[in-house]
Design a protein that fits this description.
This protein is 33% helix and 18% strand. It is of the alpha+beta class.
Length: 67
């Protein structure tokens, strides 16, 4: 069954990588990548806890004034 991705910054994934607007997350194997995707990218209640998504949310909301 295909996962429904909730994170607005998610772009795509490959065998051991997740590509998002915040960068590329690399994993040692596909199982770890799938666990991460399920826990964060495809979880409406938790995607904001991902460090990349959290940083981008802060950046786009104007919270990152150092850049």
């Amino acid at each position: 069954m295909k996962k429904v991705i909730d994170c607005p910054f998610y772009k795509r994934e490959s065998r051991k990588k997740i590509y998002c607007e915040g960068g590329i997350l690399r994993f040692h194997n596909g199982e770890l990548k799938n666990e991460y995707t399920t826990k964060y990218c495809a979880n409406n209640a938790c995607w904001k806890k991902c460090s990349a998504a959290s940083s981008l949310t802060e950046y786009y909301s104007g919270g990152n004034k150092n850049e």
